[in-house]
Amino acid sequence: MPIQINCSAPQFVGQKGRKLLVPVDISVFGAVVIGTNCQVRVSRVNVAPEALTLQVIPGTWDGTDTSVVSPPFPPPAGSLDFTVFPAFFDDFSLTTAGTYSAPYKIEVIDTSTGNPIETLPFDLTGSANPLQDRDVVFVLDRGWSMGGTDASGVTRLTRLKAAFTRGIALLRSTDTFSVVSFANVKNITNPFLGVGDGGSIRQGLAIDLANGLAVDRKSPTVKCIQMGFDAGRLLSETATLVLMTDAMNANASGHELHKPLLPTSALIISETPGSPPANINDLYSEGGSYAIAAPQTLGEFALEKLLSQILIGLAGNVVVEDPEGSLLPGQSLSYPLRIVEADREIELIVFSNDAEALDVRVLLDSGSVLASAEPTCGKKDPKDDGVTRDKGVLVLRWAVPPDNKDKGKGNDKGNDKDNDFPYSDLKVVISRSIETPNTNTPVTFNLIAAARSDLMFDAQVTSTGTEVGSELLFSAVLSQFGHTGHFPDAKVKVKLTHPDGFAQTLDLEHVSKAPGRFQASLRSFRTGTYTAHFIATGRPMFLKHHRHHHKQQVFRRECVRTIAVFSPSRCCPREDPCGFSNT
């Protein structure tokens, strides 16, 4: 009986500008006397469309973008199973959807002659949505409790304004956003900015709106977060709401707080990690998240750090590095920037008390400068559209040159598949000029290096209950090109900060029979907010280029999550003296 081939090629749904691997399962079975070994070869029949190729996986599927071959194997008496990965990647017309179809064929090859023994054609079809951009409604709290201060006398509203004006610099002109504010029940005039693009002109309007907000102290001092939710949804029913609030709330009649059903995340301004608000679970939707920004556990730029991670997540980016530091005049600090072939654009975000005094550069290991942001006057650097600079934030965007990337175009011009990825040894250098004012005052900063990437890291911390004593559950998933699997040398750890500042490190265990997934648990024994800093390291699952072991790419991915637990008395609503129910 001749060798027979079966395959399953599912339709795919991808996204413009993001690579997607489509697993095609192949079974080869039957018996034939050929006296030598066989190979399976999968080929794309023609070159159109360029968006559909094949993934080269050295040691498993070697070859080119148009044809890959398996290692040799004996003729099967039973069946042998394989998984090949056609690849989708389309970076043209990113704002429009598309459909795709391409013919492929599977061949069983006699290695002694190189001739096909059996052939099976199949078609790969699918569609792609437009590139994911941020679509956000910012809901800003200016109610009576936002006049509360931290230990340094800074009000919560002042912290909100600083974080909002710095975070909004991350928006691009292709993003869509709007802003609403809310305050007390009696106040019917809350400033807002309607839906529009994320360009610099509208960013300026949004910053002016935020800076003009004042704490509403009108009587009665009854603030209803539901009013903010409702105002935001009047502007958009599809955007993700990002609520910035201290979570103090009163359920006035007609404005009772309900858990959102549409995409909503919450960023909670707090000065006391040991006393988180009890209404947390009603401030974000399923699939959304909340984060409590307390400086004691996250540093000076707690709000900015968490807001940027929310916005980065909305755009499908990942955090590569997240260090903090301070500089005196003439000083500099450097940090490794561990990126891989799956990373296409690097976004360096520097939050600082004086970003105008800082210079940021991306350097090769040889010292060659690949990208830089030098101090200039004004918000936009006229020399480089990839640089945004203001007193409190500096954003440098560097696109990894495409001629060294797997662009999925069906050719490898100028690329030898045995070459090393040339950007495996990068570093970010942050320096401060000698000629700066306030020379004796340190300039503090938080550097967030993020990547538009197809090597993604998602982590969560949840709890088995709301009360202290419940288990904290830590989970993380690594995926590459939309596919979870085995990542060589992968490790995931959590640097956990307790409400009282106590810190410990947990190593997550790989989940048996679930490649790319990690988990751990810990019983909570203090009430308050726990801050979990997840860090994943390892080597990519899929590489296009061969390399020696000592030169293999090593990635690093990070994210910060928070979780709150309460004493039993804090888990239930309590009545306000004025007759309103506080949660």
What is the fold's blueprint, element by element?
Layout: E1 4-8, E2 12-15, E3 20-21, E4 24-29, E5 38-44, E6 52-54, E7 62-63, E8 67-69, E9 79-84, E10 86-88, E11 98-110, E12 116-129, E13 135-141, H1 156-167, E14 176-182, E15 192-197, H2 200-211, H3 225-235, E16 240-245, E17 264-269, E18 290-293, H4 295-298, H5 302-314, E19 317-321, E20 324-327, E21 332-337, E22 343-352, E23 358-364, E24 369-373, E25 387-389, E26 393-399, E27 426-432, E28 443-453, E29 455-463, E30 471-480, E31 491-497, E32 503-507, E33 509-510, E34 517-523, E35 528-538, E36 555-565, E37 574-575, E38 581-582
Parallel strand pairs: 2-12, 13-14, 13-16, 16-17, 17-18
Antiparallel strand pairs: 1-4, 3-10, 4-9, 5-8, 5-11, 6-10, 7-8, 11-12, 14-15, 19-28, 20-28, 21-27, 22-26, 22-28, 23-24, 23-27, 25-26, 29-30, 30-34, 31-32, 31-35, 33-34, 35-36, 37-38
Describe this structure in words.
- This protein starts with a strand and ends with a strand.
- The protein is globular.
- Mean pLDDT is 88; it is low at 377-384, 403-418 and 572-583.
- It has five helices and 38 strands.
- By secondary structure, it is mostly beta strands.
- It has four domains: 4-129, Immunoglobulin-like; 132-315, 3-Layer(aba) Sandwich (Rossmann fold), CATH 3.40.50.410; 318-453, Jelly Rolls; 456-544 and 553-570, Immunoglobulin-like.
